[in-house]
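Researcher: Structure prediction, please.
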Amino acid sequence: MRRRSIARSNQLLYGDSRSGCVMGERVLAVIPARFGSTRLPGKPLARIAGKPMVQHVYERVRQVQGVDRVCVATDDDRIARAVESFGGEVVKTSLEHRCGTDRVAEVARGSDATLVLNVQGDMPFVEPATVDAVLALLLADPSLPMATAKVPIFDRIAWESPHVVKVVTDRRGQALYFSRRPLPFWRAGEPSGPWGFKHLGIYGFRREFLLEFAALPTTDLERAESLEQLRALEHGYRIGVAEVQEGVGIEIDTPEDLERAEEVLRADGPQ
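Model: Predicted structure follows.
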């Protein structure tokens, strides 16, 4: 039901056709991918059900309505060759970038896009409806510079894990804070609903803001939490947050995550 309602709202916003501009906007989706990873080197090329992980992400983002162009941004020749081998578009970017957003901004700078989506390359099961929901926030509010997504956390271990980024929002669905710490703190005991909300690594930007954001100096909270989205909040910018329902929702950070992804595909077939 939730997915159908998101799809219906998006249909009203930008029609039935996947191709072409939406409400006068030109939408670019970028998947930043780097070879280096502390816990799982070569992560974008890790194979899941016979395909490199980056291919799974690419194919799912291609299903998002209203996206005019999808590309992988990388500084690594091995990743570039893999993307080209499955027919995807790749853009080679600088070796000097400090984070994935800077890599996405480089691609956006050379494009005519008005809206830019940043979908992390470690989300092989990302739901197209989730990306749709982030895009829909930007289309619904022309003054919103940036948007992202969250899902409920019903598992206390995940809520307490520093590897699961939490987000708290106000009543309008705007981000108040992101943290690796458990948020909120339940002083009176266990909650009757979810423990909190997990932040998903999907961002939507207005192109002009993305270029401005990439040029902003890093901030104290960003460095403390190692979360670049805090830079936007510390500089006073709004971030809209869509609540979504991810299916599998596995983000690949460790060899154990990779094993879980393989198990899902063996049990249920391609997602």
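Model: The mean pLDDT is 86.
Researcher: Thanks, that helps.
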